[in-house]
Amino acid sequence: QSILEARDVNYIYSDGTHALNGITMAIEKGKTTAVLGGNGAGKSTLFLCFNGILKPRTGSILFDKSPIDYSRKGMKELRSHVGIVFQDPDSQLFSASVYQDISFGPLNMKLPQEEVAARVKTAMERTGILHLKDKPTHSLSFGQKKRAAIAGVLAMSPQVLVLDEPTAGLDPSGVSEIMKLLKEAQRDLGISVVIATHDIDIVPLYCDYTYVMDQGSLVAEGTPHNVFSQK
Ligand code: ADP
Ligand code: ADP
User: Fold this and answer.
1) Which among 100, 106, 159, 230 is placed 20 to 30 Å from 133, CA to CA?
2) Where are the alpha helices (DSSP H) in 127-229?
3) Among 28, 33, 183, 221, which is best to mutate for testing ligand 1, by the most ligand atoms less than 8 A from CB?
4) What GO MF terms are annotated (predicted)?
């Protein structure tokens, strides 16, 4: 049962860079899927396509079996279902306090006040940053910022959480904490998690399925066990 799909997706940047060459992948509902690849593999470009920020030159992106609708209304709808967490948390946090940052998404969805407050609290608890709620976002550590960015997206109750390099720049304990909280969110909320990573070590530990990209192309896919046992 796939929730998000790329079908023969090609993307070319305006300078002529072929960032994605015929990418076909299916993200299974309720699983953790890794998109593994080195720098320049095309992972970020693909994730921007998943979220509708970039539109493939050819091919299509499907959410819940339907090709995504690039109208304003369609994009608003898609972004309420597919939440994206960027690699650099500073690109996602801009309010005066952690609480305000995390409430931005649900407020924007025009939810009732109590619903916003409840979602923000739950998201902060889930990411272990409740005690930081009144701090200015810029005063947080890098790992705390990563958590705050994740909390902000979780507060919008997406069906799919797409994260670009969620563990980059963290020490080993930070890596396992982030991956554990993602696994818990997936298990408790039934969401699907997709991570782009260059960190091969986390894939067999935390992911159910992996796609491997290199220079814009898909070069392997399967369970981590299958992918890493065949060289
Ligand atoms: P096999 O190990 O028999 O070759 P697969 O590698 O196709 O089988 O799938 C093994 C497991 O991975 C199955 O439980 C299947 O549901 C799951 N799976 C298959 N495709 C995906 C996917 N795109 N995302 C997440 N899980 C998947
Ligand atoms: P990854 O996330 O796997 O590192 P990217 O999707 O960022 O890969 O990049 C894929 C390719 O597209 C690379 O060759 C990169 O240099 C190029 N690229 C990324 N962003 C742009 C851009 N805004 N303009 C031109 N080329 C880009």
Assistant:
1) 159
2) 142-154, 172-189, 202-206, 224-229
3) 28
4) ATP binding; ATP hydrolysis activity; ATPase-coupled transmembrane transporter activity
